[in-house]
Design goal:
The protein has 465 residues and is an alpha/beta fold. The protein is built from 16 helices and 19 strands. It has a six-stranded parallel β-sheet, sandwiched between helices. It has a five-stranded mixed barrel with strand order 15-16-17-19-18. The relative contact order is 0.08. Bound molecules: S-adenosylmethionine and iron/sulfur cluster. Iron/sulfur cluster (SF4) is lined by residues 184, 186, 188, 191, 193-194, 228-229, 265.
Length: 465
């Protein structure tokens, strides 16, 4: 669930509070209600919620921290695994009574797209169902809800435009997220995303660069470019910028100190991206490159479009860079038909790739996916056992890799203060967390040099130099 920092509209729009208040009063929007927005799932969902919040704020709504004080309750949902999708229905159950108190309840995102109008049958107290591919239409749909329509849907996936808003309510005061490519044209056999988020659509490079410049002027020093397959970016603008050129141009915006991008698909990860990172220190030295399995046989069944050997060549290419680049990954344990030998190949790939971090999941059958029809003799307990072994192996690798960093120093962006005296936390360019001591009074949002004095599997400790 997102924990919004409270950033004023004045900072987001560049207008004074007084002039905003006058604009709202003149437009008759000031009397609109309050909204509560809860987000489940990935970073793209978090960022979609920032844009949804921007749309609502610009319509005169005020964001509140609890559903109890909201006139509009929205859930931005995730359906990547079954558990995530179930959460939404338990939330809807909890808020069933609220509707009787004159509240409007809406379901957004991937579950909305997946379940469609079925949601009205399962939860008749819901008034709005809008999938992420239809967010462009959100202002229109909200107008229908406001007019008293109690079954409003936005479920198209054929929109060829991306979701851009006049205003985005950004939750992190230092790092700004920007979706540069929406949807997905890959067809991994386990994945519901192409169904819930629709076909791939890239945002024009000139519009991305304009927003990056505005963000830098507002004081954001770090930007993270988002996409399900961010490096499959295909510029629709006449200049047809390559992804690596876009990265370099974003890094050149005055005021930007760090550029991240996620998630990269191995098949589209080309040498020019590594060359760009090598040539431009403002491009962070971190690549998230999900492998999903170490077995070519399983990768074929997953329709991942690369073999184990081809993937390891990409790793070798990244390790061949002049800068040390952190590599992180996603892995699915227990894909239908995964044998002990296949699993052993995944373990040996962990050894070969030496990831700095890993997200790992037990295979979850999803509606509308080809893998649903595959024969799956692997029992659930065995899948859980493999997941645990995988995580233990990666923990050992991370402990060893992090231990080697003791004595090194890193520049970090400070993004948290501990309750303990003189304790702060921040991220390195390679996306490691360092908890460190400093005698300074105020460090949030600044860049400082920290020497590493200790290491655990998931974070480092250090002291400001
Ligand atoms: N587009 C990215 C990619 O290609 O790697 C990530 C998409 S998804 C939001 C994030 C991760 O969820 C995937 O990398 C995969 O490991 C996991 N995932 C997707 N579908 C899954 C399923 N049916 N069961 C378990 N894990 C799944
Ligand atoms: Fe899903 Fe595969 Fe597309 Fe990633 S690349 S979103 S895993 S279909």
């Amino acid at each position: 669930m997102s924990k919004p920092f409270d950033i004023g509209l004045d900072r987001l729009t560049g207008k004074s509070r007084g002039s905003l208040a006058r604009e709202f009063a003149d437009s008759g929007l000031a009397s609109r209600g309050t909204f509560f927005l809860e987000t489940f799932g990935c970073q793209m969902n978090e960022h979609d919620s920032e844009k949804v919040a921007g749309v609502l704020l610009s319509r005169g709504y005020r964001q509140v921290e609890s559903p109890d004080s909201a006139s509009l309750i929205l859930y931005n949902t995730c359906s990547i695994r079954e558990k995530a999708a179930q959460k939404v229905f338990s939330r809807l159950g909890e808020y069933r009574m609220k509707q009787g108190e004159g509240r409007i309840i809406g379901v957004l995102g991937c579950v909305a797209q997946q379940e469609g109008e079925e949601i009205f049958e399962r939860a008749p107290w819901v008034s709005l169902v809008c999938g992420s591919a239809s967010y462009r239409k959100l202002p229109e749909l909200l107008a229908q809800v406001e007019a008293g329509n109690r079954r409003v849907t936005g479920l198209d996936t054929d929109t060829d435009e991306t979701f851009e808003t006049e205003m985005t309510r950004r939750d992190n005061p230092w790092r700004a997220y920007l979706t540069i490519i929406e949807g997905c044209d890959k067809a991994c056999s386990y994945c519901v995303v192409p169904y819930t988020r629709g076909p791939e659509r890239s945002r024009a490079s000139d519009s991305i660069l304009k927003e990056v410049r505005q963000l830098a002027e507002l004081g954001y020093s770090e930007v993270q470019l988002l996409g399900q397959t961010v490096n499959s970016y295909a510029d629709p603008a006449p200049r047809k910028m390559r992804f690596s050129d876009l990265l370099l141009s974003v890094a050149e915006a005055p005021g930007i100190r760090r550029v991240r991008f996620t998630t990269s698909h191995p098949s589209d990860f080309t040498p020019d991206i590594v060359q760009a990172i090598d040539s431009e220190p403002r491009l962070c030295d971190h690549v998230h490159l999900p492998v999903q399995s170490g077995s070519t046989r399983v990768l074929r069944a997953m329709q991942r479009t690369y073999s184990r050997e081809e993937y390891l060549e990409k790793i070798a290419m990244i390790r061949g860079a002049k800068r040390a680049i952190s590599i992180t990954t996603d892995i699915i344990a227990g894909f239908p038909g995964e044998t002990e030998d296949d699993f052993a190949e995944t373990l040996s790939l962990l050894e070969a790739a030496q990831y700095d971090s890993m997200f790992s999941f037990k295979y979850s059958p999803r509606p509308h996916t080809p893998s649903l029809a595959m024969n799956d003799p692997v029992p659930e307990e065995e899948k859980s056992r493999r997941l645990a072994i995988l995580q233990e192996k990666q923990r050992e690798i991370q402990s060893a890799r992090n231990a080697k960093l003791v004595g090194n120093s890193f520049e970090i962006l400070v993004n948290g203060k501990s309750r303990r005296e003189n304790q702060w936390t921040g991220h390195t360019s390679c996306h490691r967390v360092i908890n460190f001591t400093s005698q300074e009074q105020e460090l949030l949002g600044t860049y400082v040099q920290v020497r590493v004095t200790g290491a655990g599997p998931n974070s480092l400790v250090g002291e400001q130099i």
